[in-house]
From TrEMBL, chain A:
Location of the NADH-quinone oxidoreductase subunit D domain: 198-468
Gene source species: Desulfacinum infernum DSM 9756
Main location: membrane
Protein name in the entry: NADH-quinone oxidoreductase subunit D
Role, per record: NDH-1 shuttles electrons from NADH, via FMN and iron-sulfur (Fe-S) centers, to quinones in the respiratory chain. The immediate electron acceptor for the enzyme in this species is believed to be ubiquinone. Couples the redox reaction to proton translocation (for every two electrons transferred, four hydrogen ions are translocated across the cytoplasmic membrane), and thus conserves the redox energy in a proton gradient.
TrEMBL record, chain B:
Membrane topology: Multi-pass membrane protein
Broad EC category: translocase
Subcellular location, record wording: Cell membrane; Membrane
Classification via InterPro entries: NADH_UbQ_OxRdtase_su1/FPO (IPR001694), NADH_UbQ_OxRdtase_su1_CS (IPR018086)
Gene Ontology cellular component annotations, sorted alphabetically: plasma membrane
Species name: Desulfacinum infernum DSM 9756
EC number: 7.1.1.-
Primary role: NDH-1 shuttles electrons from NADH, via FMN and iron-sulfur (Fe-S) centers, to quinones in the respiratory chain. The immediate electron acceptor for the enzyme in this species is believed to be ubiquinone. Couples the redox reaction to proton translocation (for every two electrons transferred, four hydrogen ions are translocated across the cytoplasmic membrane), and thus conserves the redox energy in a proton gradient. This subunit may bind ubiquinone.
Designated name of the protein: NADH-quinone oxidoreductase subunit H
Top-level taxonomic group: Bacteria
Annotated TM spans: 12-36, 83-104, 116-134, 155-175, 187-206, 237-261, 273-294, 306-326
Organism lineage string: Bacteria, Pseudomonadati, Thermodesulfobacteriota, Syntrophobacteria, Syntrophobacterales
Length: 468, 329
């Protein structure tokens, strides 16, 4: 069979409806929008809320003619639907955010079935880790979600530290929070730019990248790397902050909320933007829970689940910030949630800078922390310590650990099994993009092709995070 | 003045010179517009745009054009080869015709036909056919979807476009460009027919497949829409035709609503008519570019709803009111 058999040509002559198939309007079964249960939709009492802003907007128009979900029989083979067209969106496509392939079955412009096909960026990071010492695993975690390198570092480092039973000094803890929140802003900025670009607004991308560039420069100053800082270490940090760095971060936090107004002017009140995102991809609370979604996708539906608040790590309980939640669970709410998260991250950074203590940046434990370079050159004990850490690595006690953190895209968890050696026996990374991507076909089926693109953007996936 | 313009029936020399001028002008204009678009985009997006070739990158599009000419013309496997080759020619030929009747200045109309306005719309609609042929012949699903979208969109937006133009024609009782422009010596029609002007401009944006109505070539959805499979100068022809079309719709808008070669309220300020005309046209072109780099893209069904449910009733109402006012006032 030639290629024609695999990819049926979309000829109009073939567009005769099968006699057994009902007409489009008959098949159409309106799915009522699920309501969000108020119990779970915990809104914070201080009055901030996406809903408060939403109240001022116009009531939504009725769903477009085709944009209602339909029940589609998935058992029938394609040959029974001669009027359908299979479209391979990706793996090379401008807006699949990497190498995602979505096999879309179209009836006209309506997506009747969509099947994400992942694995194009699978690098076997979990398996690679088994052959490496814990320190050597760290640079691999950078590459899990390459838009939020430090967030992955943090998740892994915290899990290993939990297994080791060490607690990092307060200065390291605060710096970690600062870097993690800067990473969150950078990741959300990238999402904002690409999401807007997917919907045809090309300019916000450049505005968002202007600010992201500042953050990248700050990462570079502190760690040497931009996309992959790898600044955190097991038991602390790689090095202390350079001089003047905190002033520049403060300056960024001071100007950033003003610059966010640029994006808001272009998008938030734009009628086209609102029409493209409101009531598109509505997720009810039940659906979020059933699919195990997390991060802004879950919070957009009104679930105030943020690991920083629900199960604080790194001392997040000391900071005053709001977990923004949406009301309607649509693409617009998720957009507003992410925008507000950026503002809140700014607040956290400012608080952390205010309270940033002096002191050590790593635990004082020779089996975990590298000695000072000057000591290595002058003291034999330090030389041996350095040698052992490099050659053998950190010996982690036998056991298993699960630690979850709030990465920009959702809940990032590491499950590590240690057999008492300096290399992990098994590492499992529960990455938010992988879990959140599941819901794509549910959201996209019955909607237009243009909505599929918007939905890929609103889930905020990074294919490296999906495939690992 | 009008006599001088219309007394050109047997003037073959004038026609030939005019044709050559049209060819030169349309090419240069398209090249300039591509450069302008990149500059406008750049400055809106905190960049400079092209800067390397020529002063402020002015020669960039010429170099790009040379590059396109030098590229291999790829015809996809299993494409309908004849149609695939014809489509870019088909898209570029009709866009030259409207230049024959465009009123650049009181003395600068190559042929002031009495159906000038109709001629322009007849030929500018032609590009839809080329897009359909190109999208169909490519044997590419994205191209096909783009072509389908384009046809649906053009059918939907042609109607309000013509209806809005009709209300101006009713006021002047002529399709002749010189008369349409002369009628605006005192006051531009944008002040008398604001609704028609706005509807015309929206529809013109959709007709030229420009953002926010650029769904036939929505690059984030359909990769490149109907010209996905085109490479080299075949792609270049689609590209040039798009920009020439933009110029035509803006030139028509200038002559119908912004007083053509007239200055505001009869004051020409000593500036020649052709300068007024081009200044206004390029301002409208700038607005089109401004749209593109500011707005998100509408969705297909929203685009259709907007035309059938908003623009068409509104333009019909506008036409009705115009007719009634002309009759009874």
């Amino acid at each position: 069979m030639g290629r024609g058999g695999v990819y049926p040509r979309p000829l109009i002559t073939r567009c005769k409806r099968h006699p057994k198939e009902k007409s489009l309007s008959q098949v159409k079964e309106n799915r009522t929008r699920g309501e969000i249960r108020p119990v779970l939709a915990q809104r914070y009492a201080d009055g901030w809320g996406v809903g408060a802003k939403r109240g001022r907007l116009q009531p939504s128009a009725s769903p477009p003619f085709a944009a209602t979900r339909r029940q589609v029989s998935v058992e029938k083979p394609m040959s029974q639907y001669p009027e359908r067209l299979i479209l391979n969106v990706g793996p090379q496509h401008p807006s699949t955010h990497g190498v995602l392939r979505v096999v879309v079955e179209l009836e006209g412009e309506v997506v009747v079935r969509c099947t994400p096909d992942i694995g194009y960026l699978h690098r076997g990071i979990e398996k690679l880790m088994e052959a490496r010492t814990y320190q050597q695993c760290l640079p691999l975690t950078d590459r899990i979600d390459y838009l939020a390198g430090s967030a992955n570092n943090l998740g892994f480092v915290l899990a290993v530290e939990k297994l080791l039973g060490v607690e990092v000094p307060p200065r390291a803890r605060y710096i970690r929070v600062i870097i993690a929140e800067m990473t969150r802003i950078a990741s959300h900025l990238f999402w904002l730019g690409t999401h807007a670009h997917d919907l045809g607004a090309m300019t916000p991308l450049f505005y968002a990248f202007r600010e992201r560039e500042q953050l990248m420069d700050l990462f570079e100053a502190v760690a040497g790397g931009r996309l992959f800082p790898c600044y955190f270490r097991i038991g602390g940090l790689a090095r202390d902050l350079p001089d003047g760095w905190t002033t520049e971060v403060r300056e960024f936090c001071r100007t950033f909320p003003d610059k966010m107004k640029d994006y808001e002017t272009l998008l938030t009140r734009n009628p086209i933007w609102i029409r493209r995102t409101r009531d598109v991809g509505v997720l009810t609370v039940d659906e979020v829970l059933d699919y195990g979604l997390s991060g802004p996708v879950a919070r957009g539906s009104g679930i105030a689940w943020d690991v920083r608040r629900a199960d604080p790590y790194c001392g997040y309980e000391e900071f005053d910030f709001v977990v923004p939640v949406g009301q309607n669970g649509d693409t617009y709410d998720r957009y507003l949630v992410r925008l507000e998260e950026m503002r809140q991250s700014c607040r956290i950074i400012e608080q952390a800078l205010d309270r940033l203590p002096e002191g050590d940046i790593a635990v004082d434990d020779p089996t975990i922390t590298y000695p000072k370079k000057t000591d290595v050159y002058t003291r034999i004990e330090s030389l041996i310590q350095h040698f052992l850490l490099v050659e053998e690595g950190i010996r982690v006690p036998e056991g298993e650990v699960f630690h979850h953190t709030e990465a920009p895209k959702g809940e990032l968890a590491f499950f590590i099994v240690s057999d008492g050696t300096s290399r992990p026996f098994r590492v499992r990374a529960r990455t938010p993009s992988f879990v959140n991507l599941q819901v794509l076909s549910k959201l996209a089926e019955g909607r237009l092709l243009a909505d599929l693109i918007a939905l890929i953007g609103t889930i905020d996936i990074v294919l490296a995070d999906v495939d690992r | 003045m009008t006599e001088a313009v219309t007394n050109t029936g047997g003037d073959w020399l004038r026609l030939i010179v005019g044709l050559i001028l049209v060819l030169i002008f349309s090419q240069l204009n398209a090249l300039f517009l591509v450069w302008l678009e990149r500059k406008v985009a750049g400055h809106i997006q905190l960049r400079y745009g092209p800067m390397e070739v020529g002063p402020h990158g002015l020669l960039q599009t010429i170099v790009d054009g040379i590059k396109l000419v030098g590229k291999e013309l790829i015809t996809p496997f299993k494409a309908d080869k004849k149609l695939f080759v014809i489509a870019p020619v088909l898209v570029f030929m009709p866009v030259l015709v409207p230049f024959l009747v465009l009123p650049f200045g009181p003395e600068l109309i190559i042929r002031d036909m009495n159906v000038g306005l109709l001629l322009i719309f007849a030929f500018s609609t032609f590009s839809v056919l080329a897009i359909l042929v190109g999208g169909w012949a490519s044997n590419n699903k994205y191209a096909l979807l783009g072509a389908i979208r384009s046809v649906a969109q053009n059918v939907a937006y042609e109607i309000p476009l013509l209806l809005s133009v009709m209300s101006v024609v009713l006021m002047v009782h002529s399709f002749k460009f010189s008369e349409l422009v002369m009628a605006q010596q005192r006051i531009w029609f944008i002040f008398l027919q604001p609704v028609a002007a706005i509807i015309y401009f929206i529809c013109a944006t959709a007709e030229t497949n420009r953002a926010p109505f650029d769904i036939p070539e929505a690059e984030s959805e359909l990769v490149a829409g109907f010209h996905t499979e085109y490479s080299g100068m075949r792609f270049g022809l689609f590209f040039l035709a798009e920009y020439t079309n933009m110029f035509i719709v803006c030139a028509v808008a200038t002559s119908l609503f912004l007083g053509g070669w007239h200055g505001p309220f009869g004051f020409s300020l000593g500036i020649p008519g052709v300068v007024w005309f081009l200044a206004k046209t390029y301002f409208l072109l700038f607005v089109l570019m401004w749209f593109r780099w500011t707005f998100p893209r509408v969705r297909f069904d929203q685009l259709m709803n907007f035309s059938w449910k908003v623009l068409i009733p509104l333009s019909m109402l506008n036409l009705l009111v115009t007719a009634l006012v002309l009759k009874f006032v």
